[in-house]
Amino acid sequence: MKTFRTHPIGIDQGETVLFSDFSNGGDMWTGNGPRERRSPVKFSQSFRSAPLIQIGVSLWDVDTSSALRAEVQAEEITAEGFTAVFRTWSDTKIARIRASWTAIGEVAHEDDWDIS
């Protein structure tokens, strides 16, 4: 559990297209085995520290002739942003993926002191 002090709480959210491989024959659509795509996401303003991230798939465009195998995660989370990561494996074919995310964390207050 993340507990917050008395600072204001900020919520930022957005969507990012992680890839679109169908039109260009990319490896998510034509490949086999473990595959991964990483996409940097920048927050609209910085948090005081790394926020909590909720991420999920908001658009699936997939081939249904094989099992659907997928994982989406937020990694490398900082106060300024994170990396959205999508992974698949085996013979799963993914044409495109869009992910939506929400970040929740402490934001700076006008009365904060900077004594560094």
Structure, explained:
19% of the residues are buried. The protein has one helix at residues 27-30; strands spanning 9-20, 35-42, 52-62, 71-75, 81-88, 94-106. With 116 residues, the chain is mainly β. It has a three-stranded antiparallel β-sheet with strand order 1-6-3. It has a three-stranded antiparallel β-sheet with strand order 2-5-4, with no helix packed on it. It is elongated and about 55 Å long. The longest helix has 4 residues, at 27-30. The two termini are 29 Å apart.
Proportion in β-strands: over 45%
Q: What can be said about the biggest beta sheet?
A: 3 strands, antiparallel
For the termini, the CA-CA separation is 29 Å
Poorly predicted segments: none
Global geometry: elongated
Number of discrete helical segments:
1
Question: Order of strands side by side in the largest beta sheet?
Answer: 1-6-3
Proportion of residues in helical segments: under 10%
Number of beta-strand segments: 6
What's the Cα radius of gyration?
18 Å
Q: Which sequence of SSEs, written as H and E, runs from N to C? A: EHEEEEE
Arithmetic mean of pLDDT: 92
Structural class given helices, strands, pairing? mainly beta
